[in-house]
Amino acid sequence: MAATQSGIHSDGMELLIFYHRNPNIALRNQLVELHVGLVRKIAHQFSHQCAEPYEDLEQIGYFGLIRAIERFDPNQGYAFRRLPGKRLPTRPKLKLSDAIKN
């Protein structure tokens, strides 16, 4: 299974690089599908720390993931998997619309 996970990560990075050079919605959606587990994991972690429903946190996570995909620059040298989590709310009272604006 480790080889499979490694293959997904390398394929994901190749897709990110290709998306950075040739952005399009179909490729972006493919990248979102590759990272669904990451969004769900982060949303689950946050659901125990705040009053927001899990579904709202997951939706915010998908917006954050899309934004991270669109803003990711492979030339900066940062690991992509760290970026989407920064878009989830850190305060219990943060509203969905506020998270989307950021």
What's the topology here?
Elements: H1 2-21, H2 25-34, H3 36-47, H4 54-71, H5 96-101
Helix pairs in contact: 1-2, 2-4, 3-4
Low-confidence stretches: 1-9, 87-94
Query: What is the ordering of alpha helices and beta strands?
Result: HHHHH
Number of helices: 5
CATH-defined architecture = Orthogonal Bundle
What's the CATH first level?
Answer: Mainly Alpha
Portion of residues in beta strands equals under 5%
As for the CATH topology, it is Rna Polymerase Sigma Factor, Chain: A
- Terminal residue distance: 36 Å
Strand element count: 0
Question: Shape from CA axes?
Answer: elongated
Helix/strand-derived category reads mainly alpha
- In round numbers, the mean pLDDT is 75
**Gyration radius from CA atoms, angstroms:** 14 Å
Could you write a compact summary of the structure shown?
The chain contains five helices and no strands. It is mostly helical.
Textual characterization of the structure:
With 102 residues, this protein is mainly α. The chain has a single domain, classed as Rna Polymerase Sigma Factor, Chain: A. It has 5 helices and no strands. The N terminus is likely disordered.
